[in-house]
Each structure stands twice: as structure tokens, then as C-alpha cells.
Amino acid sequence: MNHNPIEEYDDVNEAAVAEWKAETTTRERIKEIVKRTTEPTPASDIAEKANASQPVVRDELTELAEIGLVEKIDGAQGALYKRNDQMYIYQQVLKLHEEYSKEELIETLQGLKQTVNKIRTKHGVESPAELAQQLDPDDHEGWEDHTTWQTAQKNLYLAKAAISFYDAQQVVV
Known about the structure:
Strand content: 5-15%
Helix content: 55-70%
Radius of gyration: 21 Å
Order of helices and strands: HHEHHEEHHHH
């Protein structure tokens, strides 16, 4: 039996990056980084995070900007890039639409509303922001409720949009 020697790394992050780089293409890594880039960022920073050369990153960012997946912002120090949030939301809605029936989405929507109403009633507040203002730093259960509420609220919006997409499809098709 052949055993490949295990490479030694200074830390687990270095090992994870090496594995990620071995299992993906440069363009896949760039796209993954851009999906998480919500603030205008120089191509050089994206290149560093994606473990890619700047010329390749600039070419890929130009292509992604042309098809609308990335926003290019002209800054004083040069071009900055971030994901196009509208396209990101659209992709999330399409994914839900493809994976779930309208009935499943409605059922999910009902469950999410119940979750939000339960937390709202439990804490006597109307929003996650209001809940955050009243929580003590060591109120772990309260902060867990806050995170659950924020996630449920986000998923509510996406589920509503996916349901609306079903409705729009009936009108258009």
C-alpha cells in the first residue's frame, strides 16, 4: 500500500488554502471570493484572497462585470469591485424556485413567520435591531434569538420573492 507523505503546514489555514487551491480552478476561486465581496475592493485584494495572479483576476472581473455579476466602481486609486447584490439576490431566488415547489415555499414561509412572531412576542420588540438594543452582552439565549430572527427575516424575503416568481411565471407564460 502506498502512502503519500502528509505535507506539513505552519497552521490549519495554510493547509485549507492549499487544499482549496488544488481542488478548484483559478476562475472558480475568483467567483467564490467575489460572491462574498460586498464592499468595493481592489482587484489586488481579490487576487490575494483567491490565490490568483492579478492579471487573471482583472480579466475575470472584467468578464463578470460585463455579464452583470460584478459591479465595477471607479475610485480615486483605480477600479474597485464588489458583487452585484441584485444579481446575487436573483440567483438565490432562482435557486429556491428550482429546488422547491410553490407549496413547499409557502409552507416554509409560514414556519418562518411563526419563528419571527414567537421571538417578537418572547422579547416584546418589533425588530431584530430593537432586540439587539435591549440585550445584555452576556444574554446568550437572547443573542441566539437575535441571530435566528435575522436569518428568518432574510429567508422570509427570499421565500416571498421565489413565490412571487411562481406567480409572475403564470402571468408571463
